[in-house]
């Protein structure tokens, strides 16, 4: 596979990309027609769209095309899992410069395919156009398998807050990469390729989760959306977080309290959910706080106090 | 509504955009959560994604934001109709520069909403990020209502080829605009805001259409995909096309055979389908040719001969 996407042309590129795909029994009609057809056994379909732009959401010098594919897919598939649904399909809207080597979108597609497979889904279609900046728009679909969707608005005072997946690993990896290092590898890898706990999403729906979201902007920020939607206050317990030694070491090396990464680091796409108190939770869920009656802002506190450095990103903010 | 999207910020912009939306009974959960939930009564969902970029697929000096919204939605909703499905939902991935006035994405959203409404669908979610070039990635979903999907691969020798919707109007409008004119208004409007015959899609599935596609790259080019997928040859009859007098007049004025626009003009998003010979078709369908056994290329001919100027676009071609 040689040359640029401009040399290969639109139809050649589409052929190259679709030739890499695999399918699942849910895919009734894959790429190549006006639209794809996917089963929706539940008679409802869950759908979410995310957009990633080079230089903003990923860097070609930090991540391979394959890793960007894995990460782009993961981010969107996690949204489906966070509703309590099983991912079924991905659609890709891709903008690529004409001078980009064909290997880049090809390896991106390999990454999308493999991450979809981890989640049980398949890439079923998309669109490729030429433009100056690599832009990746992904839509993920999923099936609720008879469960009610788990929204952000169902948390009730008295519920416990529990999390599953990695917390702060991507942020720690980002801190390492930003300073020009390539290790510790586990954290760099976590930044390049998050591992959302897909199966925990539908399982949480089965466990009676009252609310759920995936952590993309940071735990405190994303729980802020839950608190706002549910009209409750959420208090987290700092001691409930288990900071890995290696993460503490990185924190010392770069002068950052690692709890900051855990509480405000996004992109690990862990799942945070609320459950009725007393509900028996599998070991993968760690209880980190509780839901309380609404009070004045801030709606999310740590040990009863505002988390001063709490954040998340405003993608249009000027300080980025 | 004043200021730029950068001043309003990500969450402010999302609030502004979602406040403009309407809903339908198919929308179980709209924007504001990790994902939307839409009914899929047929137990299958039809899904298609398209990407439009400023300067490439639309121009802000030629089209209002509202018209770009109508057109972007139409293009994608037509793909759903072309499968024989009823559109249910749109998701929007939007890239906007920070310095863009908020009115632009707001009016874009109005256009998306209104076109979705024409097709019976609703905008249910999306993502907005900051970037240098306005980029619009739309995913449309639809329901087959018990019909088999009408693909591009089912045309059989002996079938008739029929079309419904506008042909060449957008291309004639483009020719007018390219020369700095703003009239005849009907053609300019057709370019700015196509009117796909949404209801004809599911109706064609009910009429037993053997293949169908929407015309986005031009009739000859899109029928080429049908011929290739169905392994047949398609012959069109030039005399079957009714060229409006006004289109002929524009052709004379700009030195273009208007049949060229009819045969190769895309973006009207008319529907072209094949039906078993003898099938009684409603008046909205005009028979324009017939399906024959496969032969050497070209697979699509006009009165038995290759259409020399036949085209469509290769979005990565260098001559654009």
TrEMBL record, chains A, B:
Keywords: ATP-binding, Kinase, Magnesium, Metal-binding, Nucleotide-binding, Thiamine biosynthesis, Transferase. Mg(2+) 5 binds at residue 217. It catalyses: thiamine phosphate + ATP = thiamine diphosphate + ADP. Mg(2+) 4 binds at residues 34, 48, 79. GO terms for molecular function: ATP binding; magnesium ion binding; thiamine-phosphate kinase activity. Mg(2+) 1 binds at residues 49-50, 127. ATP binds at residues 126-127, 152, 216. Reaction mechanism of ThiL seems to utilize a direct, inline transfer of the gamma-phosphate of ATP to TMP rather than a phosphorylated enzyme intermediate. Belongs to the thiamine-monophosphate kinase family. This is Thiamine-monophosphate kinase. It comes from Streptomyces coryli.
């Amino acid at each position: 596979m040689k040359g640029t996407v401009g040399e290969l042309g639109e139809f050649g590129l589409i052929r190259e990309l679709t030739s890499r795909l695999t399918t699942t029994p849910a895919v009734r009609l894959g790429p190549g027609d006006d639209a794809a057809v996917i089963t929706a056994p539940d008679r409802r379909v869950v759908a979410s769209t995310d957009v990633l732009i080079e230089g903003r959401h990923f860097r070609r010098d930090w991540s391979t095309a394959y890793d960007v594919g894995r990460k782009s897919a993961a981010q969107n598939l996690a949204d489906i899992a966070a509703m309590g649904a099983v991912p079924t399909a991905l659609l890709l809207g891709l903008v690529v410069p004409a001078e980009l080597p064909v290997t880049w979108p090809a390896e991106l597609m390999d990454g999308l395919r493999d991450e979809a497979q981890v989640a049980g889904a398949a890439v079923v279609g998309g669109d490729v156009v030429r433009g100056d900046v690599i832009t990746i728009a992904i839509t993920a679909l999923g099936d609720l398998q008879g469960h009610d969707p788990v929204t952000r608005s169902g948390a009730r005072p008295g519920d416990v807050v529990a999390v599953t997946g990695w917390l702060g690993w991507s942020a720690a990896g980002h801190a390492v990469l930003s300073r020009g290092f390539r290790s510790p590898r586990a954290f760099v890898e976590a930044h390049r390729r998050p591992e959302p706990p897909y199966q925990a999403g539908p399982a949480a729906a089965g466990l009676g989760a009252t609310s759920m979201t995936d952590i993309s902007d940071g735990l405190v920020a994303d729980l802020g959306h839950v608190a706002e939607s549910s009209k409750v206050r959420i208090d987290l317990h700092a001691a409930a977080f288990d900071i890995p030694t290696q993460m503490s070491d990185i924190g010392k090396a770069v002068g950052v309290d690692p709890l900051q990464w855990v509480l405000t680091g996004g992109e690990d796409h862990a799942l945070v959910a609320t459950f009725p108190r007393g509900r028996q939770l599998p070991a993968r869920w760690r209880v980190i706080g509780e839901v309380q009656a609404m009070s004045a802002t801030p709606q999310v506190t740590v040990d009863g106090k505002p988390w001063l450095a709490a954040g998340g990103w405003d993608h249009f903010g000027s300080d980025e």
